[in-house]
Amino acid sequence: MSFALIFLSLITIDPRYHTLDEIARELDSIAQHYPEITHLDTIAYSTTDSLPVFAMKISDNANIEEDEPAVLFVACHHAEEILGVEICMYMINDLVHNYGVDSLITHWINNREIWIIPLLNPEGHSIVMKGIDTTWRKNKHDNNNNGQFDPDFDGVDLNRNYDFYWSEGGSSSPPSEYYRGPSPFSENESRALAELARNQHFVFCNSYHSARTGLGEVIYFPWHGACGYPPDFTFLREIADSMAKRIVNDAGNGTYNALPGWSVDGKARNFLYGVYGTFAYTVEVSTTCIQPGWMVDDICERNLAGAYYLLERVEGSGISGHIYDQKTDEPLSAEVIISGYYDPELPARRSDEEFGRFIRLLTAGTYNLEIKKNGYETVYLDGIEVEQDRLTELNIHLRRITDESSIRKKKGIEVIPNPTYGYILIQLKDTNINQLKIYDSAGRLTKIFKNPETRIVWQCDDCSKRIVPNGIYWVIGYEDDKRTVIKTIVLHN
Ligand SMILES: [Zn+2]
């Protein structure tokens, strides 16, 4: 009788799907064959069974960190969603086999850092692959601490465990399939992904899932929650739409669709975007979690079109650049604000520490930037043009605030000359100044600002928009019958 029960309860998974051992062997073999362009890492050991979580980096000079945009593909937060594992393995093989053969793939490998985590949840995956429970979702976290695996009580939903609005998502009840864990980042698996993201500053992440019920063949992006839309919503959606329409559906009569994810909670997608600004997407692969083996190659092949779109889009419309210390040329991690696309509630979007590099993906148009760092003068770059399908490159030097004489302050007016960019910033604080006039050293009226805003960028031009010569200028603020006079110096490059 027990034999019959076991026989009935074990469902065989098609051998087309990889087991963890097969993944380990295949990645190892690829790393040996392609040492120049691959780097195989074990980023974690699973929370309960200590199974390895592999990450493969594919890039030229794969063993060193280069100043190249990084993109992440990750699969199998949820154990039963095994199609994503196959997409990742398929992609790894396709990339390495076509290096030096296909010009686009060669370009991407030479100019990107492509990180792929084929199996984030190996211990949950093993329950599915052994046929013990092919609908298992969580890892095997020993929730009741009894030293054994209790399917009715154990496990954490890894995709509700990230430290971003953690308490808003999933369930607080251990038996739930959506149990978010005892605390944010209680699980080795989610913590390892977050750590990788902190180091790599991913521009994009595709996290592969499948829908057990509900909508499949959908790409979710951040977010449309109770707190509204995120600042990059327009850009996130444009890219999600472009990716979705490149992936043909299983039926062959249409494509995937893009939708904003409703909840703002401890999912990887929300965490990666919310904390690091990564454009993070959830791809719900196919129409159900486990498809027959004969369908797998075809599903993978069609999904590559979406993944590869991201690899290309990294160089599309947007602004990228480096931020340096003006004196030492050292790279700086500084905050990059795009006016109108900024949420002060979210952590600052910063350039990376190693190279001072930032990438902000946008659509074609004109943008105003503000570059901020404590101890440095803020730089305002107004009217930066972004073209279709091209990254605008900027190199920005920040000047350390050491020489107080360069900034002049008097009764609510602050004048900050910025020789690097040929403008002077005039800031008004707690004052009722209703007119500003600028005179040159010979006493000629050069420029007038009526009803000035609190922040005025004087482009060192006169009333006819001609650039003025270098020299001393007088900024005079008028408030009723009172005048405040400050000297400044114009010094073009
Ligand atoms: Zn899922």
Automatic annotation (TrEMBL):
Top-rank lineage group of the source organism: Bacteria
SMART domains: Zn_pept (SM00631)
One family name in Pfam for this protein: Peptidase_M14
Protein name as annotated: carboxypeptidase T
EC number: 3.4.17.18
Residue ranges of domain Peptidase M14 in the record: 16-314
A GO cellular-component term linked to this record: extracellular space
Active site (record annotation): E284
Keywords assigned by UniProt, alphabetized: Carboxypeptidase, Hydrolase, Metal-binding, Metalloprotease, Protease, Signal, Zinc
Cofactor dependence: Zn(2+)
Annotated source species: candidate division WOR-3 bacterium 4484_100
Family: Belongs to the peptidase M14 family.
InterPro entries: CarboxyPept-like_regulatory, CARBOXYPEPT_ZN_1, Peptidase_M14
Catalytic reaction(s) noted: Releases a C-terminal residue, which may be hydrophobic or positively charged
